[in-house]
Amino acid sequence: MTDDLLDSPGGRLLVSVAAAVAGLAGSYAVTGYAPAFIASPIERALARSMPGIVVSTAISTLGSLGQQLNLLLAIGLAGLFIALAARAAILTGQFTNNRALPVVGTAVVTWGVAVVLTGEVVLAAGPAVPAAAVVGLAQALDGLGGPMTPISSKRRRALSTVGAAVGAATVGYTAGNRRTTGATGDAALTLDAPGADLDDVEEKLAVAADASLNLGDIDPLVSENFYEVDINSIDPDLSAADWSLSITGAVEEEVTLDYEDIQGMEGENRFVTLRCVGESLNGYKTDTALWTGVPVDRLLEEAGVQSGCECVMLRAADDFYEEFPIDALRGGMLAYGMNGTVLPRGHGYPVRALVPGHWGEVNVKWLSEIEVLDEEADGYWEKRGWQGTGPVNPVAKLHHESTLSDGRRRIGGHAYAGLRGVQRVEVSTDGGETWTDATLSDQLPAASGDGPAEDAWRQWEYTYDPPSGGHTVVVRMVDQRGEVQPEDETDSYPSGASGWVSKQYS
Ligand SMILES: Nc1nc2c(c(=O)[nH]1)N[C@H]1C(S)=C(S)[C@@H](COP(=O)(O)O)O[C@H]1N2
Ligand SMILES: [Mo]
C-alpha cells in the first residue's frame, strides 16, 4: 500500500466521481440541451417505459416537476456509467501494471457508452476526454514525485482532482448553455417564407391586440406565454434543412415534402387555440397563437387517401404518435410560423400539425410522418389510458379578479369551445341562482379575413357590486348552437376536465 490517492478505495471513488462530473460537463459543453447530451437517451427511455398510471399520477401531482426529476435521475445514471468506466479502467491498469490503461480505458469506455447511447461518434468525445483527463490528472499528481513521496499531501491531491472536476463542470455548464440558446435562438427569429403573407400576420396580430379586453394579469387574445406540454425533458433539436415529412400508408402515392416545399406553397395565417387534455378545470394549459402554415387537405388529396378506417397516425421526431379521424386532419394545417416568428423549438420546430377543435395531444410537434391507416390503432397517450384524441371540452375560466376604485368587482377570463364556438359567457354571483351575460371580446378573424376564426377562444369580463358577506361566483359558457356547457365536474383524466368553474369569495 502506497500513499497514492488511486491506491485507496476512497481515493478511487473520489476520482471516479470527479471523472463522471467532468464527463457530464464535457458532454453538455459540446451538445447543450439537446438529444445528443449523454443523459438525454436515458431520460427518454425512462419516460417512454414508465407505466401509464405512474405518468398520469405524476402529471396530476407533480406537473412538470416530474419530468425534471426524471431528467435528474437520467443524469445520475449517465454519471454512474462514466464513474464505473473510470473505476474499472483504474483498477485494471493497476492490476496489469499498465500506466496508460486508466486514462485510455476511461476515454475509450466512456466514448463507447456515449456512442451507444446517443449514436454520436464525434460528440461522444465530449464526455470521454474530460473524464479521462481527470483520471490522468489524479495519476500524474500521485506520480509527480516519481517513486519518491509525491510533492503534495494526499489531501491536497484529492482537492486538486475535485477542483479540476468543478472547474470542468463550470466551463461545461456555461458552454452548454451558450450552445442551447444559440441553437434555439432565444430571441425568436422573424418569419421569412416565400409562401407566407407577412403583412397579413402584422394586420391580424394588430386586430387581436385591439380586440383583447384589458384584463391586466391574464393573457390577451394572443397568448404572451404559450404553455408547453410534451413527453420530452430535452426537446428534439431538428435542422430544417434535414427535415422532411412523408405521407405514407393507405395512399395511392406516397408524398414526401421538405421544408422548402412547405414554405413555398401558398400559406395562410390562422388563429388556433390549443387546450391540453391534462389541464385542470380552471388551469393554464389553454392558449392561442396566430399560426402560419399550409392547409393539410391539399396534401392529402395529392397522396390520394384510401383508408379503411378513415383514420390517420401522426408521427414525430421524438417518437410521439397520435391516431385520430382523418376528417379532423383535413381541416388542419401544417404550421412553420407562430405569431410572426419561426416556429420555436419548444412548439415543434420546424413543422407541427394543428388540428382545429381537438385536444392538444393530436397537434403533433416535430412532425415527421402522416401515416394513413387501414385499421384503428392507439396513440401514445391512449396506450397510457388517456382518451384525448377527440374534440375539446368547452370551458369558461375565471382567472382575473380586481376591485375597482368605486368598490365594484371586476372578474374575467377566457372561454373556449373548439369548433362549437363561444356564443356567450354567463356569470352568476349568487352561487348559480341567477345568471347574467358577461361582456365578450370580439371574435378573432378567420384565416381568409371573412367571418370569425373557427377555433379560437374569446375573453369575457363582468363587473358587479359584491354583496356584503360571502358570495360564490359561477361561470359557464354557451356555444354557438345555444348549448350550455355540461355542469357535471370531471377530472382531466382520462378525457379532459369538464364542469362550471366556481369560486367562493368571503
Ligand atoms: N411530438 C410531440 N408532439 C406533441 C406532444 C409531444 O409530446 N410530442 N405533446 C402534445 C400535447 S399533449 C399537447 S397538449 C400539445 C401542446 O403543444 P404546445 O407545447 O405547443 O403548447 O402538443 C402535442 N404535440
Ligand atoms: Mo396535452
UniProtKB/TrEMBL annotation:
GO terms for biological process: sulfur compound metabolic process. Gene3D superfamilies: 2.60.40.650, Oxidoreductase, molybdopterin-binding domain. Residues 479-506 are annotated as: Disordered. The chain crosses the membrane at residues 12-33, 71-91, 103-125. Residues 406-489 form the Moybdenum cofactor oxidoreductase dimerisation domain. Keywords: Membrane, Transmembrane, Transmembrane helix. InterPro entries: Ig_E-set, MoCF_OxRdtse_dimer, OxRdtase_Mopterin-bd_dom, OxRdtase_Mopterin-bd_sf. Residues 236-381 form the Oxidoreductase molybdopterin-binding domain. The keyword Transmembrane helix applies. One of its GO terms (molecular function) is sulfite oxidase activity. It holds the Pfam family Oxidored_molyb. CDD domains: SO_family_Moco_dimer (cd02110). It comes from the Archaea. This is Sulfite oxidase. It comes from Haloarcula mannanilytica.
